[in-house]
Write a structure and sequence with these properties.
Layout lengths: L1 E6 L6 H10 L4 E3 H9 L3 H8 L4 E2 L2 E2 L1 H8 L3 H28 L4 E5 L14 E6 L2 H9 L6 H9 L4 H7 L2 E4 L4 H16 L2
Parallel strand pairs: 1-5, 1-6, 2-5, 6-7
Antiparallel strand pairs: 3-4
Helix pairs in contact: 2-5, 3-5
């Protein structure tokens, strides 16, 4: 089974592209979705112990937690030390299940794939990209997004050009949905054939 790491900077179309793989029957593990599940489950008591007052009714209050860690590198490292191993467990369970099902290809949708070194756990990598203008338009259209927040998020991410250079595959989502869908199909077909 080929493990394909899917990533892309904010607003580049990563989630939409992941959905295209899933629509074609390829197992997809979404690291962000895993974090959301963990914040409402196993991670909540651990986070509350480390950051008192950040859990409400058994669910992590993301705004409260963000306020505690966003400008504090030490706090961010403590949070990551809690969450990353749990996400890793979920990822291993997902990959074992995909292997048992006989999947030829499985996708790990990981926002900071290269930044965290997660690409080392993948056989191939795919970066989704778009022009800076399209990216900016998509991101600033999101609710509760500001120029400052966008700049802060971008500062934590590897430049798009560097990601594209490191990737085995690149899909430009600025070329439209149909072009992206065709590119996804080509990747699936390449690995289905072995």
């Amino acid at each position: 089974m080929i493990v394909l790491g899917l990533t892309g900077s904010i607003g580049m179309g990563k989630s939409t592209t992941a959905a295209m793989f899933a629509e074609r029957g390829v197992p997809v593990h979404d690291a962000d979705a895993a974090v959301h599940r963990l914040y409402a489950g196993r991670a909540a008591p651990l986070i509350e112990a480390a950051f008192p007052g950040t859990v409400v009714d058994g669910v992590v209050d993301r705004k409260a937690l963000s306020a505690r860690v966003v400008d504090d590198p030490g706090a961010m490292r403590r949070l990551e030390a809690i969450v990353h191993p749990l996400v890793g467990e979920e990822e291993r369970t997902f990959l074992n299940s995909a292997r048992r099902s006989g999947a030829a290809l499985a996708v790990l949708d990981i926002p900071l794939l290269f930044e965290t070194g997660a690409d080392k756990r993948c056989d191939k990598t795919l970066v989704v990209t778009a022009s800076p203008e399209i990216q900016r338009e998509r991101v600033l259209a999101r609710p509760e997004m500001s120029e400052a927040k966008f700049a802060s998020l971008m500062a934590r991410q590897m430049p798009d050009a560097d990601k594209r250079e490191r990737a085995d595959y690149v899909i430009d989502t600025g070329n439209g949905m149909e072009a992206a869908r065709l590119a996804v199909t080509a990747i699936i077909m390449r690995h289905a054939a072995g």
